[in-house]
Protein: UDP-N-acetylmuramoyl-L-alanyl-D-glutamate--2,6-diaminopimelate ligase
Organism: Brachybacterium equifaecis
Amino acid sequence: MSAGIEAADLAARIGAQLLGADAAGALLTGASLDSRSVGPGDLYCALPGSRVHGAAFAQQAAQAGAAAALTDAAGASLCTDTGLPVLLHEDPRRASAEAAALIHHRPAERLRTVGVTGTNGKTSVTTMLRSALLDLGVPTGVMGTSGTVFRGADGTDHEIATVRTTPESPDVQAILAQMARAGTAVAAMEVSSHAMVLHRADAIVFDAVCFTNLSQDHLDFHPTMEDYFAAKASLFAPEHARAGVVCVDDEWGRRLAQSARIPVRTFTTDPAREADAVITRIAPDGFGADLRVRRTGGEEISLRAPLPGTHYAANAVAVMLLLEQIGHEGAAARAAIARAGSVPGRMELISQEPVLGVVDFSHTEDALRKALATLRAVPSTRRLIVVMGAGGDRDRSKRPAMGRAAAELADVVIVTDDNPRSEDPASIRAEVLQGAHAAAAAAEIHEVPGRSDAIALACALADESDTILVAGKGAETGQDVGGTVLPFDDREELRRRLAVAPPADSTLPPHPAEGR
Ligand SMILES: CC(=O)N[C@H]1[C@@H](OP(=O)(O)OP(=O)(O)OC[C@H]2O[C@@H](n3ccc(=O)[nH]c3=O)[C@H](O)[C@@H]2O)O[C@H](CO)[C@@H](O)[C@@H]1O[C@H](C)C(=O)N[C@@H](C)C(=O)N[C@H](CCC(=O)O)C(=O)O
Ligand SMILES: Nc1ncnc2c1ncn2[C@@H]1O[C@H](COP(=O)(O)OP(=O)(O)OP(=O)(O)O)[C@@H](O)[C@H]1O
Ligand SMILES: N[C@H](CCC[C@H](N)C(=O)O)C(=O)O
Ligand SMILES: [Mg+2]
């Protein structure tokens, strides 16, 4: 089905006023809210931003072939000046999702959709879900931090290089349309809190949604944890989803289970708690774990988590419950989870001996604590060495908390850089170090500017039976310094320093390389 709707029809359906002579018949075949990616026939969504009004770029969008603009009163004159037909709406950001859905003929209704939210675990759960569904023979796509990949009905894999955890709504709708056209049966996507506030995942009623957990992050964008929670919780409403799965390990999840306006099933890693699925036993096995799970009614089932730690046990159960909600139940679905394999850059095993080397995307205090506690529990671990830092132009208040967590749980902490972006790397390190030094712990603390040198120091300090965790960047392939992204991959760097051979090809089509 090819995209397209006439401007007058679109304006009527989104409740916009249409301005411009001869505007009614303009055919809109795509949409974009960034003038730099507008193509011929697109609706340019000129939105008010935090820095500038998108209408300032309407001329550029018109030159690139836009067929109309969607904007608010503040952007109207700049848009009409271009001569383009203008759809005037009081909330153009919200309207752009609905407009893009209409232009693409509501793609979310042409496949099954799963949305995963929570501070940590979104990429892990969507990736594990994709692996399990592919194993079950279901052509599946994922959209998230690691980019977008999807399998068509003919078995062909496609890749789209998306950058955000949740792309902008016109991109989300265009990608879902591509998936639907290719015959993808299930689309699993990460839904960030930014996405909920900025209406990126509007105009989708997910068949199933999942809440993994909430802990401190993004307090640069959200004024309070309550606001951050409210953004994520808003996904659990009939206009966004039909059914949900909620981890009730933390207080936020318990509140969500009570307040959700859609039916939800709950799960927990705490055997003392009540839930629809309770993990009663986690038996580490290799670099994964065998789980026992108690279901409603008391039935006990077995499930394999492909990665270690209580958090990956929780993720495996989340995947099991999501599969149930989209019609894949029982032993076959559980066997597919067991075969799911690993998640790039998440507790990724780089070497096993003489040093256990692991790369993980822990970039919050909670994730760092989980990763360090998991590695501490590995019987072969003698000393635990962590290389970590915190991102620039992101929540500053998490930096000391991350430093403190590292110093409390590791024996050696090497504080280094992690995408300083526009900030001074030394001042970011100072904030992390302040937390590390404040910890009531005896950890040895080093500051090493330059991530490559930091990883080198970790490898030099490691003796036989020590464990190295390189935290924060996971599968990222670049280091953003002052807006320039320099090639950098923790996994390659650690492999090189430990003189480990790169892994054999995975059987799954790879995710596109993560940007930053
Ligand atoms: C904080 C945040 O999310 N800001 C988003 C917001 O930017 P803004 O309001 O500052 O936009 P602006 O720079 O004032 O520009 C106004 C408008 O002009 C447009 N523009 C601007 C310049 C130009 O040349 N042409 C053009 O059309 C912009 O696309 C925008 O629509 O609206 C823009 C699009 O309208 C988004 O691209 C932008 O995301 C920026 C890039 C961003 O970095 N977001 C990150 C923090 C983010 O979304 N992260 C979450 C993290 C998830 C997680 O970790 O859980 C994610 O989902 O990825
Ligand atoms: N269920 C979980 N609970 C807590 N921590 C987790 C969980 N799952 C994964 N983690 C930790 O969080 C890190 C990030 O995981 P993942 O990439 O899956 O999260 P995300 O929600 O997609 O993050 P982002 O917001 O950056 O997209 C992992 O490397 C791991 O350390
Ligand atoms: N989705 C997260 C990723 C953070 C990754 C970390 N390496 C950093 O740069 O802070 C964010 O944009 O906040
Ligand atoms: Mg993610």
